[in-house]
Amino acid sequence: MSELMQILWGFLFLACVYILTQYGINWRIHRANVFVIKDLKLRGAVNAASAVELPYARKRNLNIGMRDFRRRALEELVAKGILGVTTEGKYYLLKSFDEAQSFLSGSKAGG
């Protein structure tokens, strides 16, 4: 195989790896979005009065293990109008659980 073909195959391989990692990250963000919504529903945070503080909302100084996308999911869900935040930093659902789930299933999150 010529040197030019090896270089082209290398670039093609790198492009495929990049695209697959982007799909993987988007999939993990979507799963984190679903987790956050279910967590808030289980905690009963359906309005500002019942808002709860989430342990994964705080920034951690030391990250051990795999990357945690729940904090990014919180920011994304607040920006999309699915979650609300109180002045104390507590989170609650702005939409009903079914509306939030249908919104997420209709448009994949992340990216």
Which terms summarize this structure?
single chain, 111 residues, mainly alpha, Arc Repressor Mutant, subunit A, 3 helices, 55% helix
Write structural notes for this entry.
A two-stranded antiparallel ribbon has the order 1-2. The N and C termini lie far apart (about 40 Å). It is built from three helices and two strands; from the N terminus they run ααββα. Helix content is about 55%, strand content about 5%. About 15% of the residues are buried. It has one domain: Arc Repressor Mutant, subunit A (Orthogonal Bundle). The longest helix is centred in the N-terminal third of the chain and has 41 residues. It is elongated, with a radius of gyration of 19 Å. It is mainly alpha-helical.
**Biggest beta sheet attributes:** 2 strands, antiparallel
Order of strands across the widest beta sheet?
1-2
The unreliable regions are none
Shape: elongated
Ordered list of secondary-structure elements with their pairings:
Elements: H1 3-43, H2 70-79, E1 83-85, E2 91-93, H3 97-106
Antiparallel strand pairs: 1-2
Quick gist of this model?
The protein is mainly alpha-helical and 111 residues long. Helix content is 55%, strand content 5%.
